[in-house]
Amino acid sequence: MNSLSSQQLKVCFSPQLIKSYADENSIIMVIDVLRATSAICTALHHGAEKVIPVVDVRVARDYLNKGYIVGAERNGEIVEGFEYGNSPLAFVGDHVAGKTIVLTTSNGTFALAAAQMAHQVIIGSFLNLDTVSEWVKNQKRDIVLLCAGWKQRFNMEDTLFAGAVVSKLRAANTGLSLSDSSIAAEILYAKAKDNMFDFLENTSHRNRLRSMNIEEDVRYCLIPNTTTVIPMLKDGNIVKMER
Amino acid sequence: MNSLSSQQLKVCFSPQLIKSYADENSIIMVIDVLRATSAICTALHHGAEKVIPVVDVRVARDYLNKGYIVGAERNGEIVEGFEYGNSPLAFVGDHVAGKTIVLTTSNGTFALAAAQMAHQVIIGSFLNLDTVSEWVKNQKRDIVLLCAGWKQRFNMEDTLFAGAVVSKLRAANTGLSLSDSSIAAEILYAKAKDNMFDFLENTSHRNRLRSMNIEEDVRYCLIPNTTTVIPMLKDGNIVKMER
Question: B151 to chain A: nearest residue by CA?
Answer without folding.
Answer: A20
